[in-house]
């Protein structure tokens, strides 16, 4: 039997869709949208970024990234700082409140995901854990990456971020 990416995708798509809906419907409501949360996670993973870098990482247009950053800034979750490498440029960074909110959301999401996994056996949990490097590889092949940033920090891969 030959396994193809299209065959696996046909099986995986409905499962991922259902998991996504269950996971995010069950989590506490937040004023932070999924797109804004993703931007915040990228700032946490990569440090201060230019709007163009955020747009590239999020695979969105610059005006969309700028609008999302404006909303995050109004909520006090990010701030703009001068780019030390180019004084004309501006980077976006997480504020202390942004770091706090991201941590809070992360904890809530870990608990929710753990609830979804509670019905699995230890062997099944091990199978999922063993498959994580494959998901990391899939994510690594998608989209641009910020140059000059580490994909691993303190021995953990960037995809270990529990808020995702």
UniProtKB/TrEMBL annotation:
SUPFAM superfamilies: Winged helix' DNA-binding domain
Biological source species: Corynebacterium provencense
GO molecular function: DNA binding; DNA-binding transcription factor activity
Superkingdom classification of source: Bacteria
Keyword terms, alphabetized: DNA-binding, Transcription, Transcription regulation
Originating gene: yusO
Region named Disordered: 145-164
Keyword DNA-binding among record annotations: yes
Pfam families: MarR
Family matches, as SMART domains: HTH_MARR
Name used for this protein in its record: Putative HTH-type transcriptional regulator YusO
Positions with biased composition (Basic and acidic residues): 151-164
Residue ranges constituting the HTH marR-type domain according to the UniProt record: 1-140
């Amino acid at each position: 039997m030959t396994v193809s990416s299209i065959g696996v995708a046909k099986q995986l798509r409905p499962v991922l869709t259902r998991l996504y809906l269950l996971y995010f419907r069950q989590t506490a409501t937040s004023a932070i949208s999924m797109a804004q949360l993703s931007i915040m996670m990228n700032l946490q993973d990569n440090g201060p970024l230019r709007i163009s870098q955020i747009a590239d990482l999020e695979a969105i247009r610059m005006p969309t990234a700028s609008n999302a950053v404006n909303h995050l800034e109004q909520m006090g979750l990010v701030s703009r700082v001068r780019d030390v490498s180019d004084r004309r440029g501006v980077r976006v960074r997480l504020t202390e409140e942004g770091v706090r909110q991201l941590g809070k959301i992360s904890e809530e999401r870990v608990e929710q995901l753990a609830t979804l996994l509670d019905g699995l056996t230890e062997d099944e949990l091990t199978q999922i854990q063993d498959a994580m490097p494959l998901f990391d590889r899939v994510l690594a092949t998608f989209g641009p990456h910020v140059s000059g940033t580490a994909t691993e920090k303190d021995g953990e891969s960037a995809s270990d971020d529990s808020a995702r």
